[in-house]
Write a structure and sequence with these properties.
This protein has 9 helices and 4 strands. It is an alpha+beta fold and 237 residues long. The protein has 2 domains: 78 residues, Glutaredoxin (3-Layer(aba) Sandwich); 119 residues, Glutathione S-transferase Yfyf (Class Pi), Chain A, domain 2 (Up-down Bundle). It has a 4-stranded mixed β-sheet, with helices on one face. Helix 1 links the parallel strand 1 and strand 2. Helix 6 crosses helix 8. It is globular, with a radius of gyration of 18 Å.
Length: 237
């Protein structure tokens, strides 16, 4: 199976969770929109198609044969078994999906630290609200979400979030840590001691051969001020 991933070509965004799974799974895939104007045109054609009965709402979406799957968590649920990044039993697969949906909830909170009022306004137009939202995020949301995942790892034996081998959930937790380190280097450095198992998981994922090779390649889009994670000095107090 050759997979086609459709996502914005210049940002990691939500598409990065899927890229990490495809890379770790050794999948044959193409990042369609990164293939220049023709790739972007192909993505927009699918998004704007009036003939496609099951047209995706927004990227990321994955084309696998005749199937088109949208929504990050659902894409990973679909890819998990064939890429051997999900438990074999149904209960385990559902548990992994549940955890990934929780990751999706956290991603919204992360994005809203810098755009709490509207995604259509520039950050500079909502600075006071962003500062207030960020303070709330680090006081309440980060301890609750990252503390939850720390306990999930602990109750599962201390190495992985689900089962006894790596799953797409572990890859997503790696990306969460990476992103928070970029957007909030000072705050994250102070908080990491509270979630040692999560940080250890991140470090193990970073050393996996395929992930390590991916991170050092031009396939890995750098963090920037246009993705989910954005660094603003005044928010990283």
């Amino acid at each position: 199976m050759r997979y086609e991933l459709y996502y914005w070509p210049s940002i990691q965004g939500r598409g990065e969770f899927v890229r990490l799974a495809l890379e770790e799974g050794g999948a044959d895939y193409v990042d369609v929109a990164r293939r220049g104007k023709r790739g972007m045109s192909a993505m927009m054609k699918l998004l704007e198609s009036k003939q496609l009965a099951r047209r995706p709402y927004a990227p990321p979406f994955l084309k696998a044969g005749q199937d088109i799957i949208a929504q990050t968590a659902l894409i990973l649920f679909y890819l998990g078994p064939p890429l051997k990044l999900a438990p074999r039993d149904q209960a385990g697969r559902l548990w992994a999906h549940q955890l990934q949906l929780t990751v999706s909830d956290l991603v919204v909170h992360i994005h809203d630290t810098h755009h709490p009022v509207s995604g259509w306004l520039y950050y500079e137009e909502q600075k006071p609200a962003a500062k207030r939202r960020t303070a709330d995020f680090w006081r309440y949301r980060v301890p609750k979400f990252l503390g939850y995942f720390e306990q999930v790892i602990k109750r599962n034996g201390g190495r992985y979030a689900v089962g006894r081998s790596l799953t797409y959930v572990d890859l997503s937790l790696f990306q969460i840590v990476e992103g928070l380190r970029y957007a909030f280097p000072k705050r994250m450095k102070r908080f990491e001691r509270k979630v040692p198992l999560l940080i250890a998981l991140h470090d193990r994922v970073a050393q996996r051969p395929r992930i390590k090779a991916y991170l050092s390649s031009d396939r890995r889009i750098p963090f920037s001020q246009w993705g989910i994670y954005r660094y603003f000095k005044e928010l990283d107090a």
